[in-house]
Specification:
With 269 residues, the chain is an alpha/beta fold. It has one domain: Rossmann fold (3-Layer(aba) Sandwich). Strands 3-4-2-5-1-6-7-8 form an eight-stranded mixed sheet, with helices on both faces. Helix 1 packs across helix 12 and helix 12 packs antiparallel against helix 13. It is globular and about 50 Å long. It binds adenosine-5'-triphosphate and magnesium ion. Adenosine-5'-triphosphate binds next to helix 1, strand 7 and helix 10.
């Protein structure tokens, strides 16, 4: 039965899409059956895994308004995982869903039928707390929060935690935080170190030990329509996302310390 993870943060440009695409590819490489759902009308996750956003094909939009199913919409990527694509049309869902009953549950209900077919279902949420994100949070078992370690990040996190509480109270009582992921990390910055320390202080073991460094190969890979492990496997970015995949698998298996061992072997960037 798939674990369903929403990759979310209402703050823009923190590495949600980079994380969703690369973690999907790395989990697939570890032998996991993965479905990536692009919930962002920007469609960056769709292009980032090499799928052309052709207008004629159904997308997540048609699923949300009940005109297509997951089985009829998913596409296989070259990297061994499936994707439910998105394009600009998805921006209209906000309005179209207004008249639809149980609109917060549309994605959850659509995904329910394929949960047995996957080990992980990852959702790339848009940088907003809108109806698309709410559909993601209601469909999810857990949320993964990528964040840059800068001053305003902590303020944003307070808003996000408040939203999660509301969703838990009204729509999805079992929603949990899977983990907080430090992205675009620059160890030379004192502020980064300070914020990173505060995060660990507040959230303890919820903070992944794996840290994603700032790495230009991660920024270049999407323009080739490839996850970074297919683009430059030896890059620090690729190695970091592989480590993250192992940490996610270890957490699922209840073995958080395996990652420490990997770090001790020098695999941590
Ligand atoms: P949005 O909120 O717009 O959806 P996002 O949170 O999904 O953004 P990304 O699109 O993943 O963020 O990343 C923002 C930009 O930073 C992109 O150009 C991406 O290629 C780049 N980027 C992401 N992670 C890294 C990294 N670790 N090192 C270098 N560049 C990165
Ligand atoms: Mg994005």
């Amino acid at each position: 039965m798939a674990r369903v993870l929403a990759v979310t943060n209402q703050k823009g440009g923190v590495g949600k899409t980079t994380t969703a695409v690369n973690l999907s590819a790395c989990l697939a490489e570890c032998g996991q059956r993965v479905l990536l759902i692009d919930l962002d009308p920007q469609g960056n996750a769709t292009t980032g895994c090499g799928v052309v956003k052709r207008v004629a094909l159904p997308t997540v939009y048609q699923i949300l308004i009940g005109r297509s199913t997951v089985s009829d919409t998913r596409l296989a990527t070259d990297s061994g995982f499936d994707v439910l694509p998105a394009n600009r049309e998805l921006a209209g869902a906000e309005v179209d869903l207004i008249d639809i009953a149980q609109r917060e549950y549309r994605l959850r209900d659509a995904v329910a039928g394929v949960r047995e077919e996957y080990d992980f279902i990852l959702m790339d949420c848009p940088p907003a707390l809108n109806m698309l994100t709410v559909n993601g949070l209601v469909a999810a078992d857990r949320v993964m929060i990528p964040m840059q370690c800068e001053y305003y990040a902590l303020e944003g996190l307070t808003d996000l935690v408040a939203t999660l509480k509301k969703v838990r109270a009204k729509l999805n009582p079992t929603l949990e935080i899977e983990g907080l992921l430090r992205t675009m990390f620059d160890p030379r910055s004192t502020l980064t170190q300070q914020v990173s320390g505060e995060l660990e202080g507040h959230f303890g073991s919820k903070v992944y030990r794996t840290i994603i460094p700032r790495n230009v190969r991660l920024a270049e890979a999407p323009s080739y329509g490839k996850p970074v492990i297919a683009f430059d496997r030896s890059s620090k970015g690729a190695q970091a996302y592989l480590l993250l995949a192992h940490e996610v698998l270890d957490r699922r298996a209840g073995k958080p310390d395996a990652v420490q061992a990997a770090a001790a072997l020098g695999m941590q960037p």
